[in-house]
Design goal:
Elements (H helix, E strand, L loop, with lengths): L2 H16 L27 E6 L15 E4 L24 H4 L2 H9 L5 E2 L2 E4 L6 H18 L4 E5 L2
Parallel strand pairs: 1-3, 1-4, 1-5
Antiparallel strand pairs: 2-4
């Protein structure tokens, strides 16, 4: 394993422990996840953007739920400050760094990507793998299928 990645993983575990979580952070591993090559070239694909950011500001005690919203007009801001992450080393002021809508629209204009779905999808960071697998992922898949997405770009904060 890459030494830098190992350090990041340990720092993440240490950070969560410092937040008062009693159990160590468990990294998910999906050995049977069916990642496959797209059936057609990217220039012919319709892409959906999936982010872990939220549509509105939340308190850390608010229930987290999936959501979707139109990509036009583009959101001016998305939210995630209710989550436990090291806010001394990064921030959410640069929307393009965690929601690359403008860059993807440029790829469509250049003919390297077919199109974008009319909506984008928010999957809040949830500290329950069961919630993510059993509830959130099926909902986002349903929306992607409704919007005729061929592929999805997952962009975590």
């Amino acid at each position: 394993m890459n030494h830098t990645l190992t350090q990041y993983m340990q720092r993440t575990r240490d950070f969560y422990a410092a937040q008062g979580f009693e159990r160590a952070y468990v990294w998910t591993q999906n050995d049977t996840t069916p990642f496959t090559r797209p059936a057609k070239p990217l220039k012919d694909c319709r892409l959906g953007i999936v982010t872990t950011a939220a549509l509105h500001e939340r308190k850390s005690t608010d229930k987290r739920a999936t959501a979707c919203a139109p990509i036009e007009p583009a959101p001016k801001q998305l939210w995630g400050n209710d989550l436990a992450w090291d806010k001394t080393v990064t921030h959410m002021n640069d929307l393009g760094s965690y929601f690359p809508l403008a860059a993807l629209q440029a790829e469509v204009s250049a003919g390297r990507l077919g199109s974008l779905t009319d909506r984008f999808y928010c999957v809040p960071t949830e500290y329950s793998q069961r919630q993510t697998i059993d509830v959130d992922a099926p909902q986002v898949l349903k929306w992607l299928q409704e919007d005729r997405a061929d592929i999805a770009l997952l962009v975590p904060l």
